[in-house]
Design a protein that fits this description.
Pfam families: SnoaL_2. With 112 residues, the chain is an alpha+beta fold. Helices cover 30% and strands 23% of the residues. It has a single domain, classed as Nuclear Transport Factor 2, Chain: A (Roll), CATH 3.10.450.50.
Length: 112
């Protein structure tokens, strides 16, 4: 079975809801890139992304008062995105206030 953006989104949501990204990390290409408004510059490569996500999930797991919920969804903002109805994850993080973000994935050659 070929990996799809939907598969990637579901795997990412499961990772956040379990606070364990090990299965998700197996889907990453060695030369993948992670870009976010929460990181100062793009993270390049599977190792850097692994370190970042593992650290974030460990922080949430060990306390600090943060809660995270992740859900598979479809985009509905075609002016911003390349097409309407694209698979994504809506991640809701609450520390002092609730913040929601959408995460998109690109899949090529069976890897994210």
């Amino acid at each position: 079975m070929e990996l799809t953006e939907k598969d990637a989104a579901i795997a990412y949501a499961k990772a956040w809801n379990a606070l364990d990204c090990s299965d998700f990390l197996e889907l990453l290409a060695d030369d993948c890139t992670y870009e976010s408004q929460w990181v100062t510059s793009a993270l390049e490569g599977k190792e850097a992304i692994s370190k970042y996500l593992t650290g974030k999930m460990k922080t949430v797991k060990t306390g600090g008062g943060a809660t995270v919920r992740a859900e598979h969804a479809l985009t509905t903002v075609p002016a911003f995105l390349r097409e309407e109805g694209r698979d994504c994850v809506v991640l809701t993080q609450c520390i002092e206030k609730e913040v929601q973000v959408a995460i998109l994935f690109e899949v090529a050659d069976g890897k994210i």
